[in-house]
Specification:
It contains 20 helices and no strands. The protein has 493 residues and is an all-alpha fold.
């Protein structure tokens, strides 16, 4: 258990560093690019991410969860990924001009051509990253990810300040891929992986076809509305809505993305050792929701100050969107466990079933709402998010014999934490903000302090399991530091 907590710690450090760099980059670029320029990049990014979801072909998760891996299988994984990447690169280059004409934005074609270059770096880093995850080597993964994000941030901001415009973000994406592949190979050098082979490629198809299709459907449900906004509402609407979503994803990125790299390898190992995943699922949800729900509630209450600090004055249309999206996102707290549970239990096809049931109605609702404006799109999440989570839970329950009452029991204490966190800030908002958004500096700082005090007070009252987890993690860190100090002292002796 100590090694798992240390893996979570390294993963958390990695993700928090990345999160800080993301916030800094977003804050700086929001003051350089207009919402329309930001929307232009996001349209290109949407198309690239959709193509990338097919390019990866689920090979990383396959390597992580597979019981036995041969050298030939890993070589086949690299070869297959490279062939798909070359195909996607050619497709993007061939269709870029037509996409630019469709949106009447010639600059969009240029962004897509630049981004296509980034596809060629992915296959060289993918196998090494998957092997590091399989080995739970999250300290070395933290080095890889941090180096890549630093490079991306530096390139993006430097080119943005140089007046490159939306292309600065795309060159940052290319830098991310190149540096990630370089550092991944340095941390897990396996040069034999790059020898072409297709001998065991068939083993990837049953898993990869389903996994990549599920990833594509999930991303399409998230990004397809952007493509519609670009045509119906203009690229400035794309920029405004996407930045609202980005802000609402900050708690999710800080928590879920710290856990996500560890969850699938840990669950797969737990399953291989004969463990029951139901207890792991419930405890993980309890700990996750204890942080995510209070954070999202605080973000909804303090949407105005958050947007002013992160984005600046030209984004004043964003706070009302943030408030609604943050509240809707709370329904998705257990969702980060669904994919790892289904993969670890050998039910990869159930992930496809979940996507096919939940996502088409969600996309239809969101696109219909787009005809009534951005606020209607944000409000649609109050229906879409609970629907998606309900479908996911029904499928997961079959995989791990999860009972509804157990899930409710695991959630109750987190609800108390969220309410305890929000009471003080809500009172200040009612007292000092007539429009519900324009809190001053000192009331905002007071609201943050009251929120933290309310969370700690509720934590003591309900004895939430996250308290035990914090203590145990602290002990694991102390033990690791003591062992390191002891080894150094022994070496000097």
């Amino acid at each position: 258990m100590t090694s798992l907590r240390l893996s979570l710690l390294f993963s958390a450090i990695d993700r928090y560093i990345n999160q800080i760099l993301l916030v800094v980059t977003t804050a700086i670029m929001a003051r350089i690019l207009t919402p329309a320029e930001t929307g232009l990049f996001l349209m290109a990014n949407t198309l690239i991410m959709l193509a990338d979801s097919l390019r990866s072909f689920g090979i990383g998760p396959f390597i992580v969860q597979h019981h036995t891996l041969s050298r030939t299988a890993l070589r086949s994984a690299f070869t297959l990924t490279m062939l798909i990447s070359l195909g996607m690169c050619a497709l993007i280059l061939g269709t870029a001009e037509a996409v630019g004409r469709y949106y009447d934005q010639p600059a969009l074609a240029g962004l897509l051509r630049i981004a296509a270059v980034g596809f060629l770096a992915g296959p060289f880093g993918g196998p090494s990253i998957a092997l590091l995850q399989r080995d739970l080597a999250f300290g070395r993964l933290a080095v890889v990810n941090t180096a890549a994000v630093v490079a991306s941030a530096v390139v993006t901001i430097w080119l943005g300040l140089s007046g490159i415009g939306a292309a600065s973000y795309v060159w940052g994406y290319v830098a991310l891929g190149v540096v990630s592949a370089t550092f991944a190979f340095a941390m897990r050098p396996e040069p034999w992986v790059f020898r072409p082979s297709l001998r065991e490629v068939g083993g990837f198809f049953s898993f990869g076809a389903v996994s990549s299709f599920v990833a594509f459907i999930n991303l399409a449900s998230e990004f397809l509305p952007r493509l519609v906004f670009g045509k119906l509402l203009g690229f400035d609407a794309v920029g405004l809505y996407a930045r609202a979503v980005t802000i609402c994803q900050l708690p999710n990125r800080a928590i879920v993305q710290a856990l996500q790299p560890v969850v699938l390898p840990a669950m797969a190992a737990h399953r291989r050792n004969g463990g029951h995943l139901g207890e792991v699922y419930l405890r993980s949800h309890a700990i996750m929701s204890a942080i995510q729900w209070p954070a999202l509630l605080m973000l909804a209450l303090l949407a105005g100050p958050a947007v002013r600090v992160l984005l600046g004055p030209q984004w004043d249309a964003v706070p009302p969107l943030v408030r609604v999206i943050a509240l809707g996102t709370m329904a998705l707290a257990p969702d980060f466990m669904s994919y790892p549970v289904l993969v670890a239990t050998g039910r990869i096809r159930d992930t496809l079933l979940t996507a096919l049931i939940s996502l088409p109605p969600s996309v239809a609702i969101t696109i219909t709402a787009a005809h009534f404006g951005l606020w209607a799109v944000a409000a649609s999440l109050l229906v879409v998010a609970p629907w998606q989570m309900l479908v996911s839970l029904v499928v997961v329950r079959r995989a791990i014999d999860l009972r509804w009452r157990d899930l409710v029991k695991a959630s109750r204490a987190s609800v108390v934490l969220a309410l305890g966190t929000g009471v003080g800030p809500l009172g200040l908002l009612l007292l000092f903000s007539p429009d519900g958004y324009s809190l001053g500096v000192y009331p905002t700082l007071a609201a943050l302090a009251l929120g933290a005090a309310g969370w700690l007070t509720a934590l003591r009252l309900v004895r939430h399991p996250i308290g035990t987890e914090i203590v145990d993690t602290g002990r694991a860190i102390t033990a690791m530091v003591a062992r390191t100090a002891g080894r150094r002292a022994f070496g000097r002796g």
